[in-house]
Amino acid sequence: LGLSDYLLVILTATLASIGTAGVPGVGLIMLALVLQQVGLPVEGIALIIGVDRLLDMMRTAVNVTGDATVSAIVARSEGKFDRDVFEGREAKGYDI
Predict the structure, then answer these.
(1) How far apart are CA 7 and CA 19, in angstroms?
(2) 20-54 burial, b if ≥16 CB within 10 A, otherwise e?
(3) Residue 57: which domain range?
């Protein structure tokens, strides 16, 4: 791969990761998209399917945690963050 191919992989992977849903298994689909973009054989995915499941669960956990953290930060900055609901006091019937 040349320098332009590496830059294209970086750009495609970044854009794909931004638009990807936080569900397990989507990483292989995005990898196929990136490989096809630079003309590499998509059959190479078969080499990593065995170990990708564990890595995919970790990526999904990081993605969901990051989304929840940013949502809480934005809600707090907008004055919409309710600490009692966040900590579960309201659902458990505690006096507020």
Answers:
(1) 19
(2) eeeeeebbeebbeebbeeeeeeeeeeeeeeeebee
(3) 3-92
DSSP class of residue 19 equals S
With pLDDT > 70 as the criterion, what percentage of the chain qualifies? Answer: 90
Contacts of 43-47 with C-beta under 8 Å, sequence gap 24+, read: none
3-state class of 22 per DSSP?
coil
Pairwise CA distance, residues 70 & 18, whole Å: 14
Which pTM value belongs to this model?
Answer: 0.54
Q: How many domains does the chain have?
A: 1
Compute how many other C-beta atoms are within 10 angstroms of the C-beta atom of residue 16: 17
Q: How far is CA 69 from CA 22, 24, 93, in A?
A: 14, 19, 25
What are 29-70's pLDDT values in tens digits? Answer: 888 888 888 888 888 788 888 888 888 888 778 888 998 899
